[in-house]
Amino acid sequence: MRVFKYAVIRLAVFFVVWGACMLLGLGWIFSTIAAAVIALAAGYLFFNDLRTGAGRDVASAWEGRGKAERFKSEQADADAEDSYTEGRYFDPGAEDTR
């Protein structure tokens, strides 16, 4: 949720600054560049807690730590698959006990 909030705030700042620059008649290229720089700076300076929290949320989702625990059916499926494939295929990491 923090990622969504941070994105909405950055987009809002961007479009407010972009609109103000366009109303001043600065041109769309300069308005876009100025709005992007100001939105980046505002997000970095004023929304630091939200930015770092959003970064942690993305990192934990990327690493798979988003789920606290597996569902029971998911764990049962994984156990059934492991028991079926155990010993059927060559595992290059396992020691040869022959």
TrEMBL record:
The chain crosses the membrane at residues 29-47. This is DUF4229 domain-containing protein. InterPro entries: DUF4229. Keywords: Membrane, Transmembrane, Transmembrane helix. Residues 70-98 are annotated as: Disordered. It comes from Citricoccus nitrophenolicus.
